[in-house]
Amino acid sequence: MPDQIAITRLEPHPDNPRLMFREDVIDGIAAQLREAGTFDPAHALLVRPANGHYQVVRGHHRLEAAKRAGFDTVPCWVREMSDGEAYMQLALGNVQGELSPLELGRHALGATDKGKHNGFNLQAYAGLIGKRPSSVSEYSQAAQVLESLENFECSKFLDKVYHLYAVSKTPQELWRVFAQWIVDTKPGPSVNQTDDKRKELNKIVRELQEADADTGELVYSQWADLFLPPEQVAARYLDTAHPDDGEIRALTSLARMTQETIATNEDKGRFDYTAEGYHLWLQDGTGTYAWDKDQLNAYRLKVVAAAAEAAKPPMPDAQTGEWYALGSHRLYCGDTGQAAFWEQLPNAPFAFADPPYTVGVNEEAEDFEWRHDWLTERAATVAVTPGIASIQDFYGHQTEMPHRWAMTVWLSNGMKHGPIGYANWIYVGLFSKQDLPYQQAQDHIKISIRTSQTQDSGFEWRKPPEMMDELIDRFTQMGDMVIDPFLGSGTTLFSAQKLGRICYGGEIKPERCNEIIVRWQDESGQAAVKVGA
After folding, report:
1. What pairs with residue 54 in β-bridges?
2. Most CB atoms closer than 10 Å: which of 92, 129, 312, 488?
3. What is the pLDDT of residues 283-305, one digit of tens each?
4. Which domains does the chain carry?
C-alpha cells in the first residue's frame, strides 16, 4: 500500500518540463476528489526522498488538485531514485497525455544533455518513451527555440510545437523575431503559413551570405554587417513582406557595384568618393534610404559619373596620317583615297561611302575627286550615297565599280531643304563584284528622324543614324566588319558600336577626327589609343 504523506512535505521536481498547469485537468480532478471525499490509492503519486522532504516525480497535477480540494495528505509511492532515474520518470510517467509534445521536447533536451557522457542520445530517449525518433527530434528542436526566448510568455507556444520547429530551421539570430511574429499575427498563422515564411526567410538569409575565402563555409557578407542586419531585415519582411530575397539581391548587387567603382577610382585625382564614406552612408541609411534600391542606384550613378569625369583622357589632337584604336574600332585621320588607308583594311562584308560629292555646295565638295573604287576589293557589298544631284556625274565619270542595284531611303519627315522644298529621300547605290546577298527584303527603307536632325548643320553630308542602323543590320551579322572611308561625324562608327559590329573608318579633317574620338570616349568611358604610339 502507498504511504500517506502530508502535502506540506511534498515538493515539485525542479526540472519538471511542464510549461504550465492544465487548469481544466486540475479542476476536474479536484471536483472528483471532493465528491469522493478520499484520494484513491490507485492514483498515488510517485515521489523520492530528498532533503527531509519528498520530491514529486509523477503526479504534479494530482498534487495541485488535492490542495484545492482541501486534502492534508495524499497517497504516495516512495522510491529511492538517482537524479537521472527521477528525471526520466518525469517523462515516463506522463506520456499518457499529461505532457504536451513541446514539453516532451524540453524534457528530451535535458535527458540527452544529462546522459551525453554515457552516449545517451535522442534515439535512445525515443525508445524509452515509446515515440518515433523523428518526432522526438522535432519536439526537441522546437524546445530549443523556446529555451532561447527570454522574457516570452511560454504558454503561448504550448500547442505550437510545429510552429517552433519551423522557426528552428532558420538561423538562430532570427528565432526571436520569427517567434514574435507568430505571437503577434492575428488570427494565429497555421503551421503551413509559418513554414512558408521560414522558406522565404531562408532565401533572404542566403542572399546575405557568401562563402568564406578560407573555409568555404557560408558566412554573412559585409553588407549584412553594414546595412542589412539579418534580424532587422527579417522583422521588416515578416511585417511588410519587404524586402524579399529579390530585393535583397538587388540591394547587395548595387552596393557591390558601387564599392567596386570606388575601389577602382579612389586613388585617382578629382574623385571624391571613398569606401569609408560610402560605408557610413549605408550604415546611416539602415532601414530607410539604404533599403531603397532606387536611392542606392542613384548613389551608384553619381559614383559612376564622378569616376568617368576623373578618368577622362586629355583632349585628342589627331594629325594627318595617324591611326587610332577606339576599342575594337579603327579611325584613320587622312585621305582615304590613298594606299596608306586602304592597304591596312581587312576584308569586310559591307562598306558604306557618303562622299562630299554635291556639286555647288562648297569648296570642299567642288574639289572632291572620287578615288575609292578599291572598296569593292575590300567589301562584298558597297553602298554609296553620291547625292541626288550628282548621280549622273558619279556613274558617268567617277566610278567603274560594278553596279548591282539601288535602294531608296524615304524620310517621312524630311531631313533638310531641297530644290523644291524638303529633300525626303536618299539614293543608295549598291556595288559588288558578285551577286548581292538575297535577303527577301524591300529595296526601300522608311524612317522617321528626330526633329533636331531635320535642321541644317555645319556638316552637310551627315546621314541619319536610323538609316545606318538599317543598312548595317541588313548587310552584316553581329561581330562583322564595316568600312566607311568618309566618317564625317562618325555616324557609321556609332551605329556599328550600338549593333555589335566593328568599324574601320577614315576622315580627312583632323578636327572631325577629334570630335569622333571625344564622343566615343564620352560614351564608352574608355580612352582612345594612338596606334603605334
Report:
1. 10, 49
2. 488
3. 999 999 999 999 999 999 999 99
4. 3-152 (3.90.1530.10), 203-311 (no CATH), 322-530 (3.40.50.150)
